């Protein structure tokens, strides 16, 4: 026997009620399962997805540098002429976010202590030259001396060290030296215990950023 219009309406109403009932039951359960999974995987505990991505980043990070190359160093040093520079770049490095080291967890305070080794790898394919490209730049150690030691007597002594080390107001340095550090001849000639390495990011490669 066929089902008339009223029968169809009743059947539809029953099915709708059943679906609504199951939906009302399953939605809170689904929300609970999702919330539980998020809490489990987002906690910085060994074995979780969050911990794996935190220890070592999956995406590559790059840094690019442009260097201003001085074109008239002699004119500036002798005649105090207006400095002329040429911008060169980009020089690209891939930042190494190495796996974090010496990781310790405190369950009482819910904190994590760690050290993160740092490093950078030169990327020739994304650069205009090599790490051995040379630039004429200001000699920071020599240029800063009059400002750090305004005493005339001290400047006379330091000028002796500057001349004896064959240092000048400007110097030629490679990209690698400028960024990551080089032994400065002037600072090395000073008979006192002072830092002798100069570099924009020194120290960086193969160092840690503390705990």
From TrEMBL:
One of its GO terms (cellular component) is apical plasma membrane. It comes from the Eukaryota. It catalyses: tetradecanoate(out) = tetradecanoate(in); butanoate(out) = butanoate(in); (9Z)-octadecenoate(out) = (9Z)-octadecenoate(in); tetracosanoate(out) = tetracosanoate(in). Pfam families: CD36. GO terms for biological process: cell adhesion; lipid transport. Keywords: Cell adhesion, Cell membrane, Disulfide bond, Glycoprotein, Golgi apparatus, Isopeptide bond, Lipid transport, Lipoprotein, Membrane, Palmitate, Receptor, Transmembrane, Transmembrane helix, Transport, Ubl conjugation. The chain crosses the membrane at residues 12-34. It is found in: Apical cell membrane; Cell membrane; Golgi apparatus; Membrane raft. InterPro entries: CD36/SCARB1/SNMP1, CD36_fam. It is a multi-pass membrane protein. The keyword Ubl conjugation applies. The keyword Heme does not apply. Belongs to the CD36 family. This is Platelet glycoprotein 4. The lineage of its organism: Eukaryota, Metazoa, Chordata, Craniata, Vertebrata.
């Amino acid at each position: 026997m066929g089902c008339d219009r009223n029968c169809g309406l009743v059947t539809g109403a029953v099915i709708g009620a059943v679906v609504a009932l199951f939906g009302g039951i399953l939605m809170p359960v689904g929300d609970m399962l999702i919330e539980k999974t998020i809490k489990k995987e987002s906690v910085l505990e060994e074995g979780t997805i969050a911990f794996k991505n935190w220890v070592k980043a999956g995406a590559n990070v790059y840094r690019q540098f442009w260097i201003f190359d001085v074109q008239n160093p002699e004119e500036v040093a002798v005649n105090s002429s207006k400095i002329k520079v040429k911008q060169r770049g980009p020089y690209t490095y891939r930042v190494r976010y190495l796996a974090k080291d010496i990781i310790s967890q405190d369950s009482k305070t819910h904190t994590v202590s760690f050290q993160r080794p740092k490093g950078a790898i030169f990327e020739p394919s994304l650069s205009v030259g090599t790490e051995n490209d040379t630039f004429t730049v200001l000699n920071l150690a020599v240029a800063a001396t009059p400002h750090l030691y305004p005493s005339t007597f001290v400047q006379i002594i330091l000028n002796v060290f500057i001349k004896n080390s064959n240092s000048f107001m400007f110097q030629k340095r490679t990209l690698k030296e400028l960024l990551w550090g080089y032994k400065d001849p002037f600072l090395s000639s000073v008979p006192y215990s002072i830092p002798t390495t100069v570099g924009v990011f020194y120290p960086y490669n193969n160092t840690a950023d503390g705990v």
